[in-house]
Sequence to fold (294 residues):
Amino acid sequence: MRFLVTGAGGMLGRDLVDVLAARPAHTVHAATRAELDITDAAAVHAAVGGHDVVVNTAAWTDVDGAEQHEAAATAVNGDAVAHLATACATHGARLFQLSTDYVFPGDATTPYREDAPTAPVNAYGRGKLAGERAVTRLLPDAGYVVRTAWLYGAHGRNFVTTMLGLAEHREFLDVVDDQRGQPTWSYALARQLVALAEAAHAGHAPPGVYHGTCSGETTWYGLARAVFARHGLDPDRIRPTTGARFRRPAHRPAYSVLAHDRWADAGLPPLPDWHATLVDAFAPAAPPSPWKVA
Fold:
């Protein structure tokens, strides 16, 4: 297959390009933000031509910034996705759109199924939901929405690298213990996306919504302790606190745990438990990374 990866300079985009590069049966065009502005409909139309699969990892990722600049954020996370979907429909390509747990209100007590009602509580979630709806409306037979959450990886700033960086300068770290989710290694998600694209190409994966998060669940506090333990640091340096201690412009859902039922429809297992992928992320054989070990 011929892949176009948008946002190829980001954390997930770079991992996706690495995964595809190890599969000689596929070709990949990696388009960074500087090379392809997905808000430019004409540029998108030209870029999509000649590709079988488009994986859109380009996004406005500043959640608090989206609260203050919702129109600009939605132009990237919603309107631009419609440009991609329209171009894919014209050129006969499949589109894999990355979305977020933030399309849900975060007030559940059991994992959100793929068909659960959406009700975003912030501007970022509203923009990403607009992108989801563009895919399902414009590509009912070739559109795939993969919701993910709590991503960490070797490329770019994320919670794990932030914790390790702070560990070098602070004796104790106060970390939120009243928000639950599923830490997800970006490289594992990249492999899952390629597997889904291959299953779709073989006619085994129906279009629609899939949840691309690791199995299991924890809190930010639990993740921070696990990261410290993996690096030989004392987990008791992590102290639990509440989200109310960290007031930010955008409201964060308290419960971001997603169910993974639809992977069975594609003949694929869901992503492994988050503990296992955390071990893999720091294993000597893992892809090169900037993880620091104190």
